[in-house]
Specification:
Elements lengths: L14 H6 L14 E7 L5 E7 L1 H4 L4 E5 L22 E2 L5 E7 L2 H10 L1 E6 L26 E4 L2 H6 L3 E9 L11 E6 L4 E5 L4 H12 L6 E4 L15 H13 L3 E4 L5 H4 L6 E9 L5 E13 L12 H4 L5 E10 L12 H19 L3 H7 L17 H12 L11 E3 L2 E13 L6 E6 L5 E4 L9 H13 L6 E4 L16 H21 L10 E6 L13 E13 L5 E11 L6 H20 L30 E6 L18 H4 L1 H13 L10 H9 L2
Parallel strand pairs: 1-12, 10-11, 14-15, 19-20, 23-24
Antiparallel strand pairs: 1-5, 2-4, 2-6, 3-5, 7-15, 8-13, 9-10, 9-12, 13-14, 16-17, 17-22, 18-19, 18-21, 22-23
Helix pairs in contact: 9-16, 12-13, 14-16
Length: about 700
């Protein structure tokens, strides 16, 4: 594929709508008679509802109805138990919806929810994860269909014979997605057709789930997501807000909006599960790995198994003849964890890349060279050839740009008054994921073109990049391309998740436009009033098993200043260099990389939740206590990439860029803190109290 549009730094098509407020989000679709609904969350960590007294709420002005497990519409059996809301008295965790107040205004709904009196029978609960928990078990599979356990060679024997060894543990706390736009849905039922506007990463899936839950055929349901104010995985599957909105619309016969308060999100829409890691690395005197063991313990809820696949990156990163990876999980009385940006890779690579840094110190070897020395020829676990792998080039280019050469490896050497300065490095990887999708391309009589596919633009610039792809395939300028996305009435497409969106949607867009261009080339005369249309469907190809191991790679470099008086860590510089196939829009790609790195900084320094053992909920439930970083927290942040041609991916040659930026950032920062202050902290986030305590213990 060639052309002038793809790769260019084209500005976002929807930018003007967003900055002027014209872009409509899920809670902003007003219809005559619209109502507003607010969930009533359970205040016990485990138990049963014994009574719901809604009398006081129903007497309040503006309150229309109160739904409970006794009067709510009955649902079909969901595949996802988190959607079985108001179907019974059982309370699986604190924050579970036990009632829904429907009112004429958001204020009346909030007042009504506060007036509902719920009586519960408490049961003993258990919400604290530990690697030695007596109910921990090895699941059959981790998320993504990965085997929970893999082993090759003799890791124990190789470790015992190793010239250098590290045996270390790391902990990543629960993390929360906290998109700018909280989860919201507006549902309208006219007696024949259900129309839903929802903040979702994939409306095709939402329509299918709603059809099953409410006993409707999919052709009677339209689900739209015109604009989505971020998701980071939490909107990758339908959430209770959309089910509750449809329930209330069916019961009242009026349009209903459910907009979850931010404080409800941690217990309602998923979280990154906490992970406890044990890494055992062995190497010969030359720094070549001889054994690698990565064991992970995590939690899930009692109603749905969700196993963070945090040991899987170790299976692809480094050449090692003896390796074992293991996942163990314990079902607790906690909200069900779910997807969060770079699931598995973000916590798993934090642990692995921190351990690699510790091994470099043990060997007295430069950490960049240690990684280069362990570069594999084929994917270590499967033995498949890589479709392309340029990690070494990323490390070398990153080191050059960062000024790594001449770095004094000794910790605590660079000082500026009370500040200790250090630098660190970490590698990153993320799998190439592509889902089958469909698209149509129509030539219009006015000389323009209409391209349609049910892609979801979650703020990444999907409309813009798809227009670039279409323009090059048709041989026209992007200005002649109109794009329609974000509705289940359009040609079906995969969800926006797993860094798979552009590759999944761009493939059929490219094919449909290429076919249309060929058709137009041999056709004289005017375009008919209805236009000329071509369709494309990548089913059977996009989801076909590849003989190649397909991954994106990257290298992260960080410089930190550690305050010896306060323990505060400030990141002065972040640099990421990536090998992610063909970059389709240099402007939006850089934004994605920088955004991921900023999120990785939050993972390293500010973000983290604690589970309250007594009450069973997350103590940090809003942005006042859960601290999300801003770009101002990094004075100097740069993202670059290697020009990479990979013919084994898709017609576009792209690998996906939305998540790899977060993967290695936390480890690079943690390694830089060790280089600065000489202390190794193995639990995130690296807050001032932890850093200061570690320095005072030296």
């Amino acid at each position: 594929m060639s052309g002038a549009a793809v790769g260019a730094p084209v500005e976002r098509r929807e930018g003007h709508e967003k900055v002027t407020g014209a872009a409509r989000y899920a809670a902003e679709f007003a219809s005559p008679g619209r109502l507003f609904a607010r969930p009533v969350p359970a205040t016990v960590a485990r138990g049963r509802v014994t009574d719901v007294d809604a009398s006081e709420a129903l007497r309040l002005p503006g309150v229309v109805d109160v739904l409970t497990h006794e009067n709510a519409p009955r649902l079909g059996e969901p595949d996802d138990a988190t959607l079985a809301v108001l179907q019974g008295p059982e309370i699986p965790h604190r924050g579970w919806c036990v009632a829904l107040v429907v009112a004429e205004s958001p204020e009346a709904a909030r007042e009504g929810a506060a007036a509902v009196r719920v009586s519960c029978a408490r049961e003993p609960h258990d919400v604290i994860l530990s690697a030695s928990h007596p109910r921990a078990y090895v699941p059959e599979k981790a998320n993504g269909g990965y085997l929970a356990v893999t082993e090759q060679g003799d890791p124990e024997g190789a470790s015992a014979a190793a010239a250098a060894r590290v045996d270390v543990g790391y902990r990543v706390p629960p993390l929360h997605n906290h998109p700018m736009e909280p989860h919201a849905s507006t549902a309208q039922w006219d007696g024949e057709r259900l129309t839903v506007h929802t903040s979702s990463q994939g409306t095709t899936t939402v329509r299918a789930v709603l059809a099953g839950l409410f006993g409707l055929t999919e052709d009677r349901i339209t689900v739209t997501a015109e604009h989505v104010g971020g998701g980071f995985g939490s909107k990758g599957t339908p959430r209770p807000d959309v089910v509750l909105a449809v329930m209330a619309a069916l019961r009242t016969g009026r349009p209903v909006t459910v907009a979850l308060p931010r404080r409800f999100l941690p217990s309602t829409v998923g979280h990154r599960a906490p992970t406890e890691h044990r890494l055992r690395l062995g190497a010969d005197a030359d720094g070549r790995l001889t054994s690698l063991v990565h064991e992970v313990a995590t939690h899930t809820s009692r109603i749905k198994e969700f196993v963070e696949q945090a040991a899987t990156p170790a299976r692809v990163m480094y050449a090692c003849p003896a390796m074992r990876t293991l996942h163990r999980v314990v079902a607790l009385d906690v909200p069900t964890p779910s997807w969060m940006r770079a699931p598995g890779e973000a916590p798993g690579m934090y642990a692995l890349e921190s351990a690699m840094d510790e091994l470099a110190v043990e060997l007295g070897m430069d950490p960049v060279e240690l990684r280069v020395r362990n570069e594999p020829e084929t994917e270590p676990e499967s033995g498949r050839p890589f479709s392309s792998r340029h990690l070494v080039e990323c490390l070398r280019e990153g080191a050059r740009r960062f000024g790594w050469e001449g770095r004094d490896p000794r910790p605590g050497i660079r000082a500026e008054g009370p500040l200790l300065i250090g630098t660190g490095v970490a590698a990153a990887t993320y799998p190439v994921l592509v889902g089958p999708s469909t698209a149509s391309a129509r030539a219009l009589p006015d000389g323009g073109f209409l391209v349609e596919t049910n892609a979801t633009d979650i703020g990444t610039g999907a409309r813009t990049v798809l227009a670039q792809i279409a323009a090059d395939a048709l041989g026209v300028t992007p200005e002649r391309i109109r794009i329609r996305v974000g509705s289940s009435d359009l040609p079906s497409a995969s969800l926006a998740g797993g860094s798979s969106g552009t590759a999944s949607w761009g493939w059929p867009v490219h094919e449909a436009c290429t076919r249309l261009a060929e058709r137009l080339a041999g056709r004289p005369g005017r375009i008919p009033e209805e236009g000329l249309v071509e369709h494309a469907d990548t089913a059977g190809r996009a989801d076909a098993k590849s003989p190649y191991a397909r991954h994106a790679f990257g290298a992260h470099f960080a410089e930190t200043a550690v305050d010896t008086v306060t323990g505060e860590v400030r990141v002065r510089r972040l640099l990421g260099v990536y090998a992610a196939g063909r970059i389709l829009n240099s402007r939006t790609a850089r934004s994605q990389f920088v955004g991921g790195m900023t999120m990785g900084l939050g993972m390293a320094l500010t973000e983290g939740s604690t589970v309250d053992a007594a009450f069973g909920d997350f103590a940090e439930s809003d942005l006042a206590s859960y601290h999300v970083p801003a770009h101002a927290d990094v004075p100097d942040i740069e993202a670059h990439w290697i020009e990479e041609h990979d013919p084994h991916l898709n017609p576009l040659g792209g690998k996906g860029i939305g998540e790899i930026g977060i993967v290695g950032t936390a480890a690079a920062i943690g390694n830089a803190v060790h280089h600065a202050a000489g202390v190794r902290l193995r639990e995130l986030p690296l807050t001032p109290d932890r850093v200061l305590a570690a320095m005072n213990s030296l």
